[in-house]
Specification:
This protein is α+β, with helices and mostly antiparallel strands and about 800 residues long. It has 15 helices and 45 strands. Strands 1, 2, 3, 4, 5, 6, 7, 8, 11, 12, 13, 14 and 15 form a 13-stranded mixed β-sheet that branches. It has a 7-stranded mixed β-sheet with strand order 40-37-44-45-34-35-41. Strands 16, 17, 20, 23 and 26 form a 5-stranded antiparallel β-sheet that branches.
Length: about 800
């Protein structure tokens, strides 16, 4: 009897809404926010119905309650009924990026003019979904839940369901689009497809409040994440040629500047108050730094984020909606890994599901804006939406399209390059094999100036920065031969296999692939990666994918560094791409196998390009090759180790792991197992900026406590450019400087004659009056310690110079 009554009520309600839909739409979410609508008159928008507000200004908010009655600010628009008929309409959901707000009606025209309804909401914790109005009714839990299936996603599913019950949109003709945070929304809706997740984590069929079955028809997520833990704290274990690249192994390296910026952008729950949305608490865990392993709070954080805030974490028990996923090669926040991870698993488990990838140099910083790439993506996105919403046009192929990064910034992207799958996008490979030649990565290595130039949040939307091309102090470097005439094109993810010796659990290795100019003076970042290695043995990891043309006589160089940061310590706001590790140790790298995927075919460039070598499978449970790599083949890391280093020189035994050192490692004395560290001598390091007063320049030099002694130093400070008519003048120098370990010493150096002329005030007469010409207050200068350039510093005049 109760079922019969429900059917009668539903039928009556549906009839009422059907009748009202034939008239002008004057209101949506009737009784659930009561969002008013107005019909536009004249111009290109004539006859469109706009429900909500054109902006989110105070007192002008259109809200409807979400899953827990949090007010969600919304805009809904409908096409001209005279042109496209009376609804219900197919609908496109447009979702904004982190810190953004609902789309205004002007930005919905692309879809409205195709005859689609458009829906957009301000996600909880932003704008007038409780950030700007936290005291509003229902806003107690209206803080950012980090795109939680149970909250932000459920908000959208409830509100779309209400529009279905009002008979203004179609329940199974829903497209979901959006970029960045909105890309995460689009991915999650498409993966859930026809399901919802309740607050207890259980999954159920997606139905409107009145019981209509609902389903996503197509998703076009742009620059999304699929596994947020890896996007924000990568450990290097994501490989684009394995079936399941879920977060595995040690906790990675925090992308410090990005996390700082994201944490400051929304309304957050107080730290520790909500374990499902503890953004500030999670940030504090990462801020504290290593050791992360065996930390239950860190483990709980990763489980929560991967299970409820990442589309890859949803159990893959059914195929997703058709997906066009686009990520930016030069996007240092959500790089191409986020797409290939989901793509590989989905193709293996659901081979018939339409899924396509689109890559180019766009997205978050350092992404570019290339007009031809933007136009190509927009056309492809419309092809996907049109076909799956209205059966218009031909079915788009499930393939991969890629455009390359180009410099100078603003030039058209190179390509397109197209392949049937990701494994085929690069038919050739350029490989460098470094023999057993151990190289040391020093804890103080690297150039802060170069890291600053490559920092995405300070370099901005320009990936074409070209700092000093010199090899950086304390780094391990591996260079390919000069590019032959015509050059070649990198296309995909660079793979590194290497033998690592690294004591302790805290350290990291930052990797960069750089393009060094023909004259060797500058270098441009091609790709990067952050790697949390295990202590010893052969390991495999990848840098983020890119597309990049290497010009004639340019050299590709792999640089392995102790960090990718603009300062030695963590904590500077937006200064460090990767957080420097606590107690970074010396790493020794040998047997490096560098594999660079290229667009050229095997045998080209005089044999420089070869067929891809068998993929090295990491030591992780149930690892399998991703679909498309069958013809390339694979080798386990254990077999690779035995083939490459079968008890190397200096050891006794037959095969690993039964090799015993017959001598102590480099840097130690004695006989195994009684090895002791040799005294370690390190370089002096300048801290703080040089100052000038009187006839002296003062510099502060540090000898790190981790050294037994520091090298006696000769320091020279030379202007970085032309100053007061002098071309790169020497400002001061001094030799024979010594500093004790763990100490910082103030060192005073005599100013040169040119320096005194630059910094001091001078008097002169003009028209019979005495005038003062002020000396230069600050000068940008290169600091050289024992002839090695340690970057540009600002020399500041703090008093009168005589």
């Amino acid at each position: 009897m109760r079922k019969l009554l429900l059917l009668i009520v539903t039928a009556v309600a549906t009839l009422a809404f059907t009748q009202s839909a034939n008239a002008a739409i004057t209101e949506v979410f009737d009784g659930n926010g009561d969002v008013p609508c107005t019909t536009q008159v004249g111009g290109a928008t004539d006859g469109q119905v706009w429900c909500g507000t054109g902006s989110s200004s105070a007192g002008n908010v259109s809200s409807s309650p979400g899953v827990d009655n949090v007010p969600i600010d919304v805009n809904v628009a409908f096409p001209n009924a005279t042109t496209y008929g009376v609804g219900p309409y197919p609908v496109v959901m447009q979702s904004h990026g982190y810190g953004g707000r609902k789309f205004p009606f002007a930005q919905m025209q692309r879809w409205l003019l195709k005859g689609y309804a458009v829906y957009s909401q301000t996600q909880r914790g932003f704008g007038y979904s409780c950030k700007d109005n936290p005291a509003a009714a229902g806003c107690a839990s209206g803080y950012v839940h980090l795109m939680d299936f149970r909250f932000e996603i459920r908000d959208a599913q409830i509100l779309l369901g209400r529009l279905v019950d009002e008979n203004v949109i179609q329940p199974t003709k829903i497209a979901t689009t959006g970029g960045s945070y909105g890309g995460g929304m689009s991915m999650s809706l498409a993966v859930l497809k026809d399901r919802v997740m309740d607050l207890d984590g259980s999954l159920h069929p997606w139905e409107s409040p009145l019981g209509t079955d609902m389903e996503i028809a197509v998703g076009t997520p742009n620059i999304p994440w699929t596994e947020l833990t890896y996007a924000l704290a990568p450990n290097g274990n994501n490989l684009d040629y394995i079936k399941d690249a879920s977060y595995f192994g040690r906790t990675g390296v925090m992308k410090e500047s990005y996390i700082q910026g994201l944490a400051a952008s929304g309304r957050n729950a107080p730290a520790g108050s909500d374990p499902q949305a503890d953004i500030l608490g999670w940030k504090a865990l990462l801020d504290a730094g290593e050791p992360y392993d065996n930390n239950q709070a860190v483990a709980d954080m990763k489980t929560e984020i991967n299970t409820y805030h990442s589309s890859y974490g949803l159990p893959p028990t059914q195929a997703p909606a058709p997906l066009l996923i686009s990520n930016g090669f030069t996007d240092d926040l959500f790089p191409a890994d986020e797409a290939t991870r989901f793509y590989n698993r989905s193709r293996a488990q659901f081979p018939g599901t339409p899924i396509s990838l689109f890559f180019g140099s766009f997205g978050h910083q350092r992404g570019q804006t290339q007009a031809n790439v933007s136009a190509a993506f927009q056309a492809l996105e419309e092809q996907w939406v049109d076909f799956y919403l209205t059966d218009t046009g031909s079915q788009p192929p499930s393939d991969v399209t890629a455009y390359t990064q180009t410099c100078p910034n603003g030039t058209a992207g190179g390509g397109p390059y197209n392949a049937t799958d990701w494994a085929s996008i690069a038919p050739g490979e350029i490989r460098l094999l470094d023999a057993n030649d151990p190289k040391r990565i020093d804890p103080d290595g690297g150039s802060f100036g170069v890291s600053a130039a490559f920092n995405p949040l300070t370099a901005g939307q320009n990936p074409c920065g070209a700092p000093d091309g010199s090899r950086e102090f304390g780094s391990a470097n591996y260079s390919l031969p000069k590019a032959p005439a015509g050059g070649y094109t990198v296309l995909g993810s660079t793979t590194v296999v290497a033998k690592i010796s690294l004591p302790g659990d805290n350290s990291q290795i930052a990797a960069r692939l750089v393009d060094v100019s023909a004259n060797g003076q500058t270098k441009t970042l091609v790709s990067r990666g952050l790697w949390r290695p295990t202590q010893s043995g052969f390991q495999v990891f990848q840098l983020h994918a890119n597309g990049w043309k290497v010009d004639t006589d340019h050299v590709l160089r792999l640089e392995l560094l102790p960090r990718d940061s603009a300062q030695a310590a963590p904590g500077g706001f937006l200064s460090n791409y990767g957080r420097p590790s606590n107690n970074q140790q010396v790493a020794t790298v040998s047997f490096v196998d560098l594999r660079i995927p290229v667009a050229e075919s095997p045998g080209s460039l005089g044999g420089m390009v070869t067929a891809p070598a068998p993929r090295v499978l990491p030591d992780r449970p149930d690892v399998e090759l991703a679909k498309g790599n069958e013809g390339i083949g694979s080798i386990t890391i254990a077999d690779y180790t035995a083939d490459t280093d079968p008890c190397p020189a200096g050891t006794t035994g037959t095969t690993p792991p039964d090799c015993t050192p017959d001598a102590c490692p480099v840097g130690q004395t004695g006989t195994p197992p009684n090895c002791q560290d040799k005294p370690v001598t390190g370089p002096l390091k300048m801290v703080a900026r040089p100052t000038v007063k009187g006839k002296k320049m003062r510099v502060n030099l540090l000898c790190s406590a981790k050294y037994d002694s520091c090298t006696t130093a000769k320091v020279a400070v030379r202007a970085a450019g032309k100053v007061r008519g002098f071309k790169k003048p020497l400002l001061a120098k001094r030799g024979g400087i010594t500093v004790k370990p763990g100490k910082t010493s103030r060192v005073y150096m005599n100013l040169t004659t040119k320096a005194r002329k630059i910094f001091r005030d001078t008097t002169y007469r003009k028209n019979g009056r005495k005038r003062i010409r002020k000396g230069v207050r600050k000068v940008r200068a290169n600091v050289l310690i024992n002839g090695k350039n340690y970057g540009v510093r600002t020399v500041l005049r703090i008093g009168t110079v005589r």
